[in-house]
Amino acid sequence: MSGSSKMLREGGKLGLLTLASRVLGLIREMTRAAFMGTGALADAFTVAFNLPNFLRRLFAENSMSAAFIPTFSGYLAEGDSEEAREKSREFLSATFTVLMVLVTATVALGIAFTPWIVKLFGSDPVETAVLTRIMFPFLALVSVAAFFQGILNSIGVFAPSGAAPIVFNLVFIAVPYLIAGPAGNPARAMAIGVVLGGLLQALVQLPAVLKAGWRFGFIGLGRAFANPGMRKVMSLIGPTILGMAAYQVNILVSTSLASSAGTGAVSSLQYSLRLQEFVLGIFVVSAGTVLLPNLAGSASAGRWPEFSDSVGRGLRAMILVTVPVAIFSMVAGHDIVSLLFRAREFDEESVRLTAAAFFFHMIGLAFIAVNRVLAPAFYACSDTRTPTRAGIISFGVNIAAAFLLVGSLKGPGIALALSIASAVNSVVLVVALSRKGIDGMASAFASSAIYALKMLAISILAVIPVWYFEPRLGALWGGDGRFLASGLPLVIGASIFGLVAFGILVATKDEMTAALIKALARKLGRRRA
After folding, report:
1. What is the DSSP letter of 157?
2. What region, left, alpha or beta, does residue 439 occupy, with left being phi > 0 and alpha being psi -120 to 50 degrees?
3. Which three-class secondary structure string do you get for 328-375?
């Protein structure tokens, strides 16, 4: 099987698992909305969860992608001799040792300093402190899970890593119903669910790691830091941590600003972000995960036209998916939020707050998706400094914009600031990658920019009938519950939008659409055979 065929196959598997995970993640947020709405308890939970989540991004997913996977892939490229495998095992043990020492110390310090940390936010300090201390061990558990994921992704195994978030979401959904009473309140029950889910995220991947024959354990800390692979990881991860720290501090500052914008601002922003992540997770996250090894292979072999072609196709695929979804969601946002979340504690005011934030978050959807292609392009070239610089610049833009907009727009202003920062990040990365002089890259960017304008025009044309008819359809069933009042107009509107957009794409002989239709036809043909 060719590398591209394997990438498509693994991407398809991971895409399906990610879709299932995102659907369950949406149900998870619906559960949280039903139990807590956008009240003070919801704000406290959101702040408490963001604190260990902030550190998770530093120790876990992004660091593994930027530093661990390229380094471990280098060891794997040395072959399968006993000497090569021993060097790989030593590197894994060194990484595991350093990771566990760092995260354990961080968890201990985080729990100890919680009373002072929560004073930076406007949520209930007592409840936020309790929830923070419950959830801080999640950092250590999810870091181990990310370590296992890095091993598996390096050897081309993606399914267990795709299944891990599914397990997390199932636990999060179930636990509040089981122990909300004994835990004291729904927020504390969910905090316990977060920790249990993190544990299972690691355990569900361990059998696949062991099956692949990889063994590791604790070694002396001096020996771990002296390992050549560990030194390379540290050199690569330093700039990445700096950039991710800027991004995550961004989120914390935004959360602090939102908590001063009134009750419900923090939690409504969180619900809106989860909806945005649902869309991203269906295609964008899995594509970026599978794209990195492919780009790294092209870069290491010096196949630069192939590298540029992969980047260009990745960008156009992101644009094809995210631009129409963003335009439709901006028009139909109120019905989307109402259909998914309105129940029990999540009332019409909660819908209004979340839909307003969602409108501005969706402006940045395509830019976030584009960044998921551009950043792996730099990582494949062992360049972690440029994405770091871009992250720091966008961090400054986001903070400045948030301070300027929160006074007039409240929570939605913070959402708009994030979208502006995402756009700036994309521009910086495009300019930097263009300056590398990679063969074919200028053409890839030019065709992607033209395609973005085309998709924007098509999406605006397709959304006009939705903008006109959907409110009128909703008025017909206004008193018949959210499934009719919001769900039916949403389904009709989405159908109209999809048919119009697809019809224009087919009529204009769109290359990406034609390739998608051919791929589906081949798949159906194989099934019939």
Report:
1. -
2. beta
3. HHHHHHHHHHHHHHCECCECHHHHHHHHHHHHHHHHCHHHHHHHHHHH
How far apart, in whole angstroms, are the C-alpha atoms of residue 227 and residue 93? Answer: 10
Please list, in sequence order, all residues whose beta carbon lies within 8 angstroms of the beta carbon of residue 319, skipping any fewer than 6 positions away: 366, 369, 370, 448, 451, 452, 455
DSSP label at 210?
A: H
The span from the CA of 526 to the CA of 513, in Å, is 20
Instruction: Label residues 184-194 b or e (16+ Cβ within 10 Å = b).
Output: ebbbbbbbbbb
Distance in angstroms (rounded) separating the CA atoms of residues 301 and 396: 37
CB 340, CB 26: distance < 8 Å: yes
pTM for this entry: 0.72
Q: Looking at residue 1, what is its pLDDT?
A: 47
Token match 């280098």: residue? 74
The candidate with the shortest Cα–Cα distance to 82, out of 213, 233, 227, 218, is 213
Whole-number Cα distances in Å, 303 to 298, 309, 439? 5, 10, 9
Task: Write b or e for each residue in 342-366: b if 16 or more Cβ atoms lie within 10 A of its Cβ, otherwise e.
Answer: bbebbeeebbbbbbbbbbbbbbbbb
Rounded-to-integer distance, Cα 304 and Cα 32, Å:
47
CB-based contacts of 281, cutoff 8 Å, min separation 6: 18, 19, 21, 22, 25
What span, in angstroms and rounded, lies between the C-alpha atoms of 80 and 348?
61
User: Can you state the angle between helices 411-434 and 265-300, rounded to 10 degrees?
Assistant: 10
Extract the tokens encoding 457: 């025009």
- Using DSSP, how many helices (H) and how many strands (E) does the chain show? 23, 0
Q: Which helix (H) or strand (E) holds 39?
A: none
Both tokens of residue 84?
Answer: 């090569």
Q: Which H or E run includes 215?
A: none
* Cα distance between the two ends of the chain: 20
Q: How many CA atoms lie within 13 A of 290 on its CB side?
A: 25
User: How big is the chain, counted in residues?
Assistant: 529
- pLDDT means per 10 residues in the chain (529 residues)? 50 70 85 86 87 74 70 81 85 92 92 89 86 93 90 84 90 90 88 94 93 89 91 76 63 73 79 83 59 62 79 86 92 89 82 92 92 83 82 87 87 91 94 88 91 95 88 64 76 91 88 72 59
Q: Which residue has the tokens 């894994």?
A: 92
Q: Give dist(CA 208, CA 215) in Å, integer.
A: 12
Determine the pLDDT at residue 363: 94
Backbone angles phi, psi at 223, to 5 degrees: -65, -35
Where helices occur in 260-303 by DSSP H, the ranges are 265-300
The answer to whether 399 and 269 are in contact (CB under 8 A) is no
C-alpha 257/C-alpha 487 separation (Å) is: 33
E-only strand ranges, 104-195: none
- Nearest to residue 14, comparing CAs of 341, 281, 296? 281
Question: Among all chains, which residue has been given the structure tokens 């009332």?
Answer: 347
